[in-house]
């Protein structure tokens, strides 16, 4: 019991009017003894107030239908590491649960349409935490796509527009990349690993080490952990209550109802543009993070679909 909690409960129990001098000394005596107990035996405090448990690994687990060979000692240890790290980083895990409720409904149908296993939505979680982050190397957005890769797959990237921040379009590109990798390597696990290390890097290591399976490869520390982190996030987010995460529907993040308006001209000022749809500039940019400037040049008269509130 925390000291301030005990003191508050004691006052509440006896009442201010009946807190006699003797009662005061009794409370202060307990506090002194409580502090002394903690000093001489801190494990008693941890035993009563805080516990950390080892996590039972599932008897079997898969990624995109491909079995994780937990009978191999290093494989078991690598999964155990990611489960421990991501379970006991409670604040982050709970944020991921909340964001997943908001963004998975956007990502899931695009993966399905492209024949990508649903498990790959957790790759986006591992890459960015479902935030529009930028890595030190310049990888951008939910799917952490590099500028060259984005342009190779047809995304627009310039000072006005960066479609790596466009969730739907970026998910389409990630899907195409993963399908190409699966065709090249034959397994979804290697396709996932190649998303981190690159197709050339994985191909080179498979050839050098004379193996054909991700779980037989010795890779750099980041890629070695990569698939296991995805699998751990899948396991935790899919079984949140089993891992001690409790929440109600009202706690989860929601996407506000939107509609899309087509724009095929330049927009000189997004502040005034937003006002036409009863929005402010901040809300417009939150819903359209791929619009990177205060205006849109659009010299080519391209048709853009901009999200506005209904």
Automatic annotation (TrEMBL):
<feature type="transmembrane region" description="Helical">
    <location>
        <begin position="12"/>
        <end position="32"/>
    </location>
</feature>
<keyword id="KW-0812">Transmembrane</keyword>
<dbReference type="InterPro" id="IPR008258">
    <property type="entry name" value="Transglycosylase_SLT_dom_1"/>
</dbReference>
<keyword id="KW-1133">Transmembrane helix</keyword>
<dbReference type="Pfam" id="PF01464">
    <property type="entry name" value="SLT"/>
</dbReference>
<comment type="similarity">
    <text>Belongs to the transglycosylase Slt family.</text>
</comment>
<keyword id="KW-0472">Membrane</keyword>
<protein>
    <submittedName>
        <fullName>Membrane-bound lytic murein transglycosylase D MltD</fullName>
    </submittedName>
</protein>
<dbReference type="InterPro" id="IPR023346">
    <property type="entry name" value="Lysozyme-like_dom_sf"/>
</dbReference>
<feature type="domain" description="Transglycosylase SLT">
    <location>
        <begin position="106"/>
        <end position="210"/>
    </location>
</feature>
């Amino acid at each position: 019991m925390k000291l301030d909690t005990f003191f508050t409960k004691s006052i509440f129990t006896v009442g201010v009017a009946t807190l006699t001098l003797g009662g005061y000394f009794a409370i202060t005596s307990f506090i002194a003894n409580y502090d002394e107990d903690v000093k001489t035996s801190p494990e008693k405090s941890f035993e009563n107030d805080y516990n950390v448990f080892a996590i039972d690994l599932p008897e079997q687990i898969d990624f995109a239908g491909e079995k994780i060979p937990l009978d191999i000692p290093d494989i078991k240890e690598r999964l155990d590491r990611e489960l421990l790290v991501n379970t006991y980083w409670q604040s982050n895990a709970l944020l991921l649960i909340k964001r997943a409720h908001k963004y998975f409904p956007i990502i899931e149908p695009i993966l399905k349409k492209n024949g990508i296993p649903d498990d790959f939505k957790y790759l986006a979680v591992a890459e960015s935490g479902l935030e529009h982050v930028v890595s030190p190397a310049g990888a951008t957005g939910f799917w952490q796509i590099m500028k060259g890769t984005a342009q190779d797959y047809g995304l627009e990237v310039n000072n006005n527009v960066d479609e790596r921040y466009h969730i739907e379009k970026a998910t389409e590109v990630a899907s195409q990349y993963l399908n190409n990798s699966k065709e090249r390597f034959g397994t979804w696990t290697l396709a996932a690993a190649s998303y981190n290390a690159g197709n050339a890097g994985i191909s080179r290591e498979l050839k050098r080490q004379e193996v054909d399976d991700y779980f037989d490869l010795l890779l750099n520390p980041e890629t070695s952990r990569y698939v296991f982190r995805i699998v751990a996030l899948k396991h935790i987010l899919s079984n949140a209550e089993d891992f001690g995460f409790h929440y109600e529907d009202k706690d989860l993040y929601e996407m506000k109802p939107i509609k899309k308006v087509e724009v095929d001209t330049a927009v000189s000022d997004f502040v005034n543009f937003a006002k036409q749809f009863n929005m402010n500039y901040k809300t417009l940019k939150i819903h359209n993070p791929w619009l990177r400037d205060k205006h849109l040049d659009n010299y080519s008269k391209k048709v853009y679909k901009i999200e506005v509130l209904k």
